[in-house]
Specification:
Layout: H1 10-19, H2 22-32, H3 34-37, E1 52-53, H4 54-61, H5 65-77, E2 81-86, E3 89-94, H6 96-109
Antiparallel strand pairs: 1-3, 2-3
Helix pairs in contact: 1-5, 4-5
Keywords: DNA-binding, Transcription, Transcription regulation
GO molecular function, one term: DNA-binding transcription factor activity
Organism: Streptomyces cyaneochromogenes
Length: 110
C-alpha cells in the first residue's frame, strides 16, 4: 500500500506564510481588539466596524509606511484582513469568518 501525497490547499499555505512573519502576526493580534490597541489615535471611522487606519497601524508599529502597507497587503492577499477606503485613507479589519475557516481547515489538514 502506498501513501498518497496530499497537497495542502494553496489558500491555507498562503495564510500560514503570512502568519510566519512575527510582525504580521502582531498586527493581527492588535486588530483583534482595535479599541484596546488603537484607543490613543483619533479615528475617522469606527475601528470595530470599518477597521483601523493604516497610518495608526504604522504609528503603533513604528515602521515605515511602505513596510506596513506591504505587510497589510500580504495579510489581505492571504484573506486574513479586509481593506476599506475612507476618503484617502485605507482601514484594515480582520476577516473573522475567513480566519475561522482557515483554523478549521488547518485542524482538518493536520
Amino acid at each position: 500500500m502506498t501513501d498518497a501525497v496530499i497537497s495542502p490547499d494553496a489558500d491555507l499555505v498562503g495564510a500560514l506564510k503570512a502568519l510566519a512573519n512575527p510582525v504580521r502576526l502582531q498586527l493581527l493580534v492588535w486588530l483583534r481588539e482595535p479599541e484596546r490597541h488603537f484607543s490613543q489615535y483619533e479615528a475617522i471611522a469606527d475601528p470595530v466596524e470599518v477597521g483601523v487606519c493604516v497610518s495608526h497601524i504604522q504609528a503603533k508599529a513604528g515602521l515605515a509606511q511602505s513596510t506596513v502597507s506591504a505587510y497589510m497587503a500580504e495579510l489581505q492577499r492571504a484573506g486574513l484582513v479586509r481593506a476599506t477606503r475612507v476618503g484617502k485613507w485605507t482601514h484594515y479589519k480582520r476577516d473573522e469568518e475567513r480566519i475561522a475557516e482557515l483554523v478549521a481547515q488547518l485542524g482538518q489538514t493536520l
